[in-house]
Specification:
39% of the residues lie in helices and 12% in strands. It contains 33 helices and 26 strands. Helix 5 packs parallel to helix 17 and helix 8 crosses helix 9. The chain is an alpha/beta fold and 939 residues long.
Length: 939
């Protein structure tokens, strides 16, 4: 057994034996055979790899990544050279207190992240000029596609036509084309000046555009809206350019989108980085993504929370505003902190340097007759038309610079680290001349003055208080201390698999030849990335049994979308485009029906039986009824109810017999790896949550990756990237901006698989199942009701505790349990999903027996408190559960009818290590009734 297996798995061999005996078994394999139906177990091996030590795996990956050549990136096309301030890199990007936290659904123990995200929103609000911003979206291209869909929801009276300016980034256009087809939106692509406002519901403009031109569209947009008042204008803007130039709101746009990558977020061969979206207040309920809002807690203190959550999928399902489930929170935080640390003066200095050097290069190139496609003002990009562009790309790469190339045009985009020496060198490389001329700033940028913004930006004190490293370091630590993450305790969230994110797995992300690689850099300079991605693909194919794996999807929900896309494209190719029915069990994730709707499918719900399993008879009936138009089944396995359904192979066969395909949601793959292969169960395609099963950290709500595994017949229909794939693109339009999604974080999963090896992967799965059953057994003995179980009364890797009888008897709700667990130092399990009034608990394989017992003790003690409410020993309203969580402010001025010890230190161990929530219970309804999403109303 490799040393890393012992580091990753929380149980010692002795603890494993003890827990097995507790459950009535003397052998782990005997126990697993009692949990998983024998006919589902795979007889084939997985990766066949022997686990390496941390040092060995890092050395292997370093050798591989040495094939990457970290050229100075001047490629542009939506990704830019930036410098991550060391204080942010070390204290946020490389800090498990930030990267291991969960999405801030439990706001009382997430106030630090929420404040950081509020800063991000304020930054976006200021720079775009709008009233409202979200926090955040996946990447610029998907944000653009979301904006198109949002525009259609708003302008319902318009046609189904959407005008896209031909000078948008090619990957953005590609993703818009993918999304438009299945939303039945007709795209008109051309010069924006030729747009007929009367025939479209909206328009999309890139500013600066593909060629780098910065334009004030105010008069043009005003003219469009005069002809069509309800027309929606979406403008994609470079965030750094907005430090200088007029905001999209000032120009008359309705929605702004873009990327915040160049605010200190490493390139990472395409990600992760956070996209932004901003709009008018009146459109807040149609906006996708998460919005951080201001509310008050039980003491009237201002507090933050995620606002307007009724828009989200788990409530609205196929009627949700989007299927977004993962945002790029860690990266949004980094971008917001970048603005906080630099302040407005620092950002203006960076933006002015970038545009000065770009215009200086452009002026010199024009002087000697180089054919530039730029007209008027440029910010950071020039586009060059040459007879032999590839020769220039190779020449510059040989001299340390990566330039962009698309459809015969060379792109030169200058970023934060550019110097005058770089500009002179680029001039010489492009022209073969050495007569570079320096020009003063006033003369060089005179034509830009008319485009400059007149309004003040970033005036909130947070953007002026932390410009020294000492103050910034303390600010970051103060925010971090307000949150619970995996550095504090187990996060037992069902379906989210909050396992160890090992330091060795994350270490490569800070290597220069991993962090600084542009996704569209010359292919000769990215050999290490290509080898690592191919290696991970092979690992995942072996683990899942599929014939191919696509790495492009940027999240689990986007993996769902890509899986259905491959299915629909395949069915189109065999003349079965009319298949539009998607069967989805009622137990499914909310993203499933939302994704199906985005793919133009009609959702038909399939019933579940009293044990939580798919009702096979109902499935057969509906599959047969829709055999002529059945597209697919979307099913989660093990089920969302946390059990291994013995009928899964029969279920898949029923769908195939009726002409459909099977999409398997891989959210619960942590119960399968090394034991069961989705492809062998009958699935045609399945997404793989790398941020769950394969150790990518949740980052407070992102990043994530959701690659899909699929069978051979679907492989030809996978999305490609118009820039990276070039001639092989073949109109297989994209789902993400970059060819491998958030490519840098794939190194985490490669390290995870490589260090665990086949034996470690299998043991991890078995341990996760053991831990879940150990918790379920002890909670059941204590008096909790485990809602669903599979064969022999066992659960899979998670269990659902039914609190509805307790609520009916005492008035104590699942929310009260969740808040009270904070007083015990725990983040709550998944609440009210997939069944209202329940908690879904998943301990993962990384937790020790001590930690499992500590959580069990907390749950048992809370049940005893419920009994005291029932017996009248605690008041029905003024009791430890209804008042939870208890803050430091409570302790200072105690006014409860029970002791401070009961409220704040309900178990003896808490006196040694106590985490106080920074606020009391937050009033969600107040926050939605009094919607506020900016820093000024929080201060």
């Amino acid at each position: 057994m490799s040393e890393f297996i012992k580091r990753h798995i929380g149980l010692s061999h002795g603890e494993q034996k003890q827990m097995l005996a507790d459950l009535g078994y003397d052998c782990l394999d005997t126990f697993i055979n009692a949990v998983i139906p024998a006919e589902l177990l795979s007889s084939s091996k997985t990766t066949r790899e022997v686990g390496l030590s941390e040092d060995q795996a890092l050395a292997k990956l370093r050798t591989m990544m040495d094939a990457n050549i970290p050229l100075k990136s001047c490629v542009g096309l939506g990704y830019y050279d930036t410098i991550t301030p060391a204080v942010i890199r070390r204290n946020v990007f490389e800090n498990p207190g930030w990267y291991t936290a969960y999405t801030p659904y439990q706001a009382e123990i997430s106030q630090g992240r929420l404040e950081a995200l509020l800063n991000y929103q304020q930054m976006i609000i200021d720079l775009t000029g709008f009233d409202l911003a979200n926090a955040s979206l996946l990447d610029e291209a998907t944000a653009a596609a979301e904006a198109m869909a949002m525009a259609k929801r708003i302008n319902t009276a318009g046609s189904n036509k959407f005008f896209v300016d031909s000078k948008v980034f090619p990957q953005t256009l590609s993703v818009i084309q993918t999304r438009a087809k299945y939303l039945e939106i007709e795209l008109i692509i051309g010069d924006i000046k030729d747009c007929d406002a009367s025939e479209v519901f909206g328009v999309f403009i890139q500013n600066p555009d593909l060629h780098g031109n910065v334009v004030d569209h105010s008069a043009f947009i005003a003219d469009l809206k005069a002809k069509s008042p309800k027309l929606m204008v979406v403008m994609a803007c470079d965030l750094l350019s907005l430090v200088l130039f007029k905001s999209p709101k000032t120009q008359g746009a309705d929605i702004a989108v873009g990327s915040s990558q160049r605010f200190g977020v490493p390139l990472g061969f395409g990600g992760p980085s956070a996209a932004y979206m901003a709009t008018k207040d009146e459109y807040k309920r149609t906006m996708p993504g998460r919005i951080i809002g201001v509310s008050i807690d039980a003491k009237g203190k201002k507090a933050l929370r995620m606002a307007l959550q009724t828009r989200e999928q788990h409530i609205r399902r196929e009627k949700a505003t989007s299927n977004i489930c993962t945002a790029q929170v860690l990266l949004a935080n980094m971008a917001g902190f970048y603005a906080v640390y630099h302040g407005v003066d620092g950002l203006k200095h960076i933006a002015r340097r970038v545009t000065h050097f770009t215009n200086l290069l452009a002026s010199n190139l024009r002087r000697v007759g180089i054919n530039l496609l730029n007209h008027g003002s440029v910010f950071d990009t020039i586009a060059i038309k040459l007879d032999n562009p590839q020769a220039l790309i190779e020449k510059c790469a040989d001299n340390g610079y990566a330039l962009g190339l698309y459809q015969g045009v060379v792109y030169v985009s200058l970023g934060e680290s550019i110097t005058l020496a770089d500009v002179e060198q680029l001039y010489t490389l492009i022209t073969d001349k050495t007569d570079f001329e320096n020009i003063n700033d006033a003369e060089l940028l005179a034509n830009q003055a008319v485009l400059y913004r007149q309004d003040d930006i970033l005036t909130h004190e947070v953007f002026s208080n932390y410009q020294t490293e000492t103050k910034m370091m303390r600010y970051l630590k103060r925010l971090e201390n307000k949150d619970i993450s995996l550095v504090h305790s187990m996060i037992p969230l069902g379906s989210c698999t909050m396992k160890l994110n090992a330091a060795a797995e994350l270490e490569p992300l800070s290597w220069a030849n991993v962090a600084s690689i542009h996704p569209f850099a010359p292919k000769s300079s990215v050999g290490g990335y290509l080898a690592m991605v191919e290696g991970l693909k092979n690992q995942l194919k072996a683990i899942t049994g599929f014939d191919d794996v696509c790495m492009q999807p940027n999240s689990g929900a986007q993996g769902e979308y890509t899986g259905l896309l491959a299915i629909r494209r395949y069915q189109d190719s065999i003349g079965q485009s009319a298949r539009n029915i998607c069967l989805i069990p009622k137990s499914a994730h909310g993203t499933n029906p939302a994704t199906a709707q985005m793919m133009g499918l009609e959702v038909v719900a399939v019933n579940c039986d009293e044990n939580g399993n798919v009702d096979v008879a109902d499935l057969r009936l509906k599959a047969t009824e829709h055999k002529d138009d059945l597209c697919c089944l979307m099913i989660t396995y093990p089920s969302t109810h946390g059990v291994f359904e013995a009928a899964i192979k029969e279920i898949c066969q029923i769908i195939h017999d009726n002409g459909g395909q099977v999409y398997m949601d891989g959210a619960n793959l942590n119960a399968l790896v090394g034991l069961v292969k989705p492809a062998e169960l009958g699935a045609d395609v399945s997404h793989i949550n790398l941020h769950k099963t394969f150790a990518i950290p949740h980052g407070g709500g992102g990043p994530g990756m959701g690659p899909i595994g699929l069978k051979q017949h679907l492989s030809a229909f996978l999305p490609k990237n118009p820039v990276f794939d070039g001639d092989e693109y073949n109109n297989l339009t994209a789902v993400s901006s970059a060819q491998f999604g958030s490519a840098s974080i794939l190194a985490i999963s490669w390290m995870y698989n490589t260090m665990l090896g086949e034996a470690g992967l299998e043991l991890s799965t078995k341990t996760a199942i053991l831990n879940a059953n150990y918790i379920a057994s002890h909670l059941q003995k204590a008096g909790y009701q485990v809602l669903y179980s599979g064969q022999n009364g066992k659960v899979a890797h998670e269990c659902i505790i039914d609190l509805r009888p307790i609520k009916a008897e005492t008035g104590i709700t699942e929310v009260d349990f969740a808040k009270r667990l904070m007083d015990y130092g725990f983040h709550a399990p998944t609440m009210s999903f997939p069944v209202p009034g329940t908690l879904m608990i998943e301990p993962t394989e990384s937790e020790s027996k001590d930690e499992l017992d500590r959580f069990i003790a907390a749950m048992v003690n809370i049940l005893a408190e419920v009994a005291k409410v029932k017996a009248g020993e605690f008041d029905k309203v003024n009791n430890p559960l209804k008042n939870a969580p208890h803050s430091m402010a409570d302790l200072i001025s105690w006014d409860k009818p029970y002791s401070a010890e009961i409220g704040c230190f309900p178990l003896p161990a808490l006196k040694e290590a106590k985490i106080f929530p920074s606020v009391n219970r937050i009033d969600d309804a107040h926050g939605d009734r009094n919607f506020i999403c900016n820093c000024f109303d929080f201060s």
